[in-house]
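Lecture notes, continued. The same structure-token format from the folding unit now serves as the input rather than the output. Read the line below as a description of shape only.
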């Protein structure tokens, strides 16, 4: 059952990450989130017991290495995502990439330089004293995650002052997540020191995520930190998600009206300029509808019911006379939706064309 959970979450994260990567290639934004989702998906798949059993047959404790590498890449992705949200994605880009590359190489080299690695899930607690390479492994892993967490905290703290609303709330949650992550990393270093100083170190066993201090630091705090990171990354995109839903509903509402106008005035179609984002596609549709209304003799000041009657009458096209009024985007959307609603109320308004 646990394997199903790990593989399910991992594959879902992978699919979402690949979709975000494809979208990032079109829009030029969101690469950090794509990296994070893909890396987390890979980490979850590698952590499943079934996957680790196969990985250990290939090489002892290979699953531990692969999941740690994926976790580091995910941390880098979160750094990039927070920098994009804070508007400072171009800063320290090379230093982040260099730190990740060095840490990945050191982890791989120190792992394969260690002999006598255990099979299974890769618990190293009893091997640190006899294998200095494993000390290097865990120290570099912890050091890089600490570097990433501090970088995330600095970017979040710097951007929170200029942020407002959901952005500020999300960055504030990220700061709290960083505090839990740093506590986890401090506990990891303390555990390493304890294993090195003990003559007979014993692998930690937890009955629950918060059953004792060690389990709280090693299991509970990372879980809380990951949850807070997910919340912190989600909050800033909620307004944009709401806007995308409203834009999609507006495009759907305008579809029958656009179909009618394009049928009467084919030249209003913007060939090859539908746009990449939902907002760009909506602006294209609105422009086409507005041009069609002008050609149909519908003035901007005409009430929606009167405009719908003029469209249904099929009168010869006359140039509309623009009138002074509220020209904001919201007001224009409301005006066009009202006309489209009045137009759809007539049974003979016509069928809808495919969405743009």
């Amino acid at each position: 059952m646990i394997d199903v959970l790990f593989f399910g979450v991992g594959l879902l994260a992978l699919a979402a990450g690949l979709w975000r990567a494809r979208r990032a290639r079109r829009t030029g934004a969101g690469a950090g989130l794509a990296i994070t989702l893909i890396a987390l998906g890979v980490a979850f798949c590698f952590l499943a017991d079934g996957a680790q059993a196969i990985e250990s047959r290939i090489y002892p404790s290979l699953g531990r290495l692969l999941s740690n590498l994926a976790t580091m890449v995910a941390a880098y992705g979160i750094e990039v995502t927070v920098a994009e949200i804070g508007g400072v994605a171009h800063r320290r880009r090379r230093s982040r990439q260099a730190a990740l590359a060095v840490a990945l190489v050191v982890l791989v080299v120190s792992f394969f330089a260690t002999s006598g690695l255990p099979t299974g899930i890769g618990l190293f607690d009893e091997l640190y004293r006899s294998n200095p390479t494993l000390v290097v492994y865990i120290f570099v892993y912890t050091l890089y995650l600490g570097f990433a967490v501090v970088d995330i905290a600095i970017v979040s703290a710097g951007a929170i002052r200029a942020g407002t609303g959901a952005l500020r709330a999300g960055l504030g949650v990220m700061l709290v997540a960083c505090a839990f992550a740093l506590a986890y990393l401090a506990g990891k270093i303390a555990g390493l020191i304890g294993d090195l100083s003990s003559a007979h170190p014993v692998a930690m066993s937890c009955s629950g995520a918060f059953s004792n201090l060690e389990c709280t630091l090693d299991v509970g705090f990372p879980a809380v930190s990951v949850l807070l990171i997910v919340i912190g990354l989600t909050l800033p995109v909620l307004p944009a998600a709401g806007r995308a839903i409203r834009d999609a509903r507006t495009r759907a509402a305008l579809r029958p009206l656009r179909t009618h106008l394009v049928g009467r005035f084919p030249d209003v179609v913007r060939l090859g300029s539908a746009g990449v984002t939902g907002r760009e596609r909506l602006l294209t549709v609105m422009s086409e509808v507005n041009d069609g209304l002008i050609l149909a003799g519908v003035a901007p000041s005409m009430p929606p019911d009167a405009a719908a009657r003029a469209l249904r009458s099929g009168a010869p096209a006359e140039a509309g006379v623009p009138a002074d009024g509220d020209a904001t985007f919201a007001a224009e959307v409301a005006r066009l939706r009202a006309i489209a609603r009045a137009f759809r109320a007539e049974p003979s308004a016509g069928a809808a064309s495919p969405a743009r």
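Point for the exam: Confidence is low (pLDDT under 50) at residues 316-325, 349-356.
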